[in-house]
Structure formats: structure tokens, C-alpha cells
Specification:
The protein is an alpha+beta fold and about 110 residues long. It has three helices and four strands, in the order βαβαβαβ. Strands 1-4-2-3 form a four-stranded mixed β-sheet. The longest helix is centred in the middle third of the chain and has 21 residues, at about 50-70.
Amino acid sequence: MNVGDRIFFDFDKYNVRADQRGQVEKWAAWLKRNPSVRVTIEGHADERGTREYNLGLGERRANSVKDALVASGIDAGRLTTVSYGKERPAVLGSNEAAWAQNRRGVLVVN
């Protein structure tokens, strides 16, 4: 696993996409091999929408990833979540290519 690995979400959605589940499964397998590690799951949004809305959306995204990891057998006590909404874009730009990269969940090792 690489620190800062990420998964991506569809516009205005927070469910883990089918094409992203493999990444979550890799995270779960890595966490099982490293039982003392704790991680923070960051939820991010693109620039569209209000600050408040995107903070809530980022929170739902982070919690969705957390729920998927817990469903894979990871102890919830090892997982924390935080939402940055649209405050920390990975890519600058006001186009679909940039927005798609900014709608993400990021796993950060504590």
C-alpha cells in the first residue's frame, strides 16, 4: 500500500463504486497484515456546491469507505474519518477531468 492511496467517486455520490472496490479490498488486506496500524480516511469533493454541502458529502464519502473496510473485517477503532470538502483539491481546474480527480477518498496512515 502507498500512503495516500485513493479511490474515486461519481458526481454527488458517496457509495464506493464497483470499479473502486478492488482498491478498498487491497487496503483491507494490507490493514489485516499490519494490525497495529491506524489510518485516517479523508473525504474530498470537487469545487461545485457550497462549502457546507461539500463538507457533508466528504464526510459521507469517508464514512462509506470506513464502512466498507469494517465490512471486510477491519476494527472500526483503527479507522478515523475527516472531511475536507472542496478545501484540498488534488488537481486545480474547473473541468470534468479535474473534478473527477477531486471526488475522492484518501487513506492516510497515522
